[in-house]
Design a protein that fits this description.
The protein has 189 residues and is of the alpha+beta class. Helix content is 47%, strand content 16%. The protein is built from 7 helices and 6 strands, in the order αααββαβαββαβα.
């Protein structure tokens, strides 16, 4: 009998990814690449409230996804366990795919986003993730996809901290549906 996998919240997922960023840092060969990784790790840690981070780290430690090593100076270093590295890679947005659970159920998933100019990097990253996941541009700042994508979008929204700017809509009908069916190769038109 398969053991049920424990689900982790967005903060725990973010912490695993940030720790994985530390692994990536050790593998980076150029100073520019190392600096980009450091900036990303620093920004990611600042987005997490201290109390929430402490609870999330405790849960990850109990799940044996991270290890704590005490340093000679009394400080503590968090390291990803092998299981933690495997789990973190499953949350890596660049390699994320939307699983199709069977045939198309004739529903459309529309993602609307209105991310302000002062958060342009997050907006561009979100738009890029939508494209990588296979979304098509419905309108400016709106993407469409024919399969349930809530989990993936929720994860990216939490990772980029843009929850207040993104809406997900499940629709039964769209007036130019034949066009989208053709683009997504769903049915013969």
């Amino acid at each position: 009998m398969r053991k049920a996998r424990k689900r982790f919240g967005p903060i725990q997922q973010k912490i695993l990814l940030l720790l994985l960023g530390g692994v990536a840092l050790s593998c980076a060969r150029t100073a520019k690449r190392q600096w980009n990784i450091i900036k990303g790790i620093h920004a990611g840690w600042q987005d997490i409230r201290r109390q929430a981070a402490e609870r999330a780290v405790d849960a990850l430690y109990e799940s044996r996804l991270i290890e704590a090593r005490e340093n000679p100076d009394g400080s503590c270093t968090l390291l990803l366990s092998d299981a933690g590295k495997t789990r973190a890679l499953t949350y890596k947005p660049r390699y994320m795919k939307i699983e199709h659970a069977g045939p198309w159920n004739k529903k459309w998933w529309i993602v609307l986003y209105d991310i302000p100019e002062d958060e342009r990097e997050a907006r561009d990253a979100f738009r890029g993730h939508l494209t990588e996941l296979g979304f098509r541009k419905l309108q400016q700042s709106a993407g469409i996809y024919p399969f349930d994508c809530r989990k993936e979008i929720e994860f990216i929204v939490e990772l980029l901290d843009i929850r207040k700017y993104v809406r997900i809509i499940e629709a039964d009908h769209i007036d130019n549906e034949w066009h989208w069916k053709r683009l997504f190769k769903l049915e013969q038109v």
